[in-house]
Amino acid sequence: MRTRNAVVNRGGSVYRDKQECLDHLDLMRRSKLPLHGIEIVMLTENSAETNHYKTVWFKAQTKVYDKAATFIKEQMVGVWNYAEIKI
Q: What is the DSSP string of the chain?
């Protein structure tokens, strides 16, 4: 049986599963770190695939963590099971 990793490092990018993303957002909120974007991906053997519907960029930091958490909860479904948080 194949195990699922909560965090995957590939080519200098860090991809987190849904729960790990939400936990990381909470840590960022408490540390008051800026959040610039989120890219939700489908990991394959050799790459991370995405499309423009699975990427969001934030222009302002107003309620950014709440907006990010909502985006993750709504968009991370099915094969779209990892995300890269852009800081």
A: -PPPPSEEEETTEEEE-HHHHHHHHHHHHHHT----EEEEEEE-SS-EE--GGGEEE-SS-TTHHHHHHHHHHHH--TT--EEEEE-
**Phi, then psi, of 54 in degrees rounded to 5:** -105, 15
- How many whole angstroms separate alpha carbon 86 and alpha carbon 37? 5
Q: How far apart are CA 84 and CA 17, in angstroms?
A: 9
pLDDT tens-place string over residues 36-63: 999 999 998 888 999 999 999 999 999 9
Q: Are 8 and 38 in contact (CB under 8 A)?
A: no
**Residue 77 structure tokens:** 């479904």
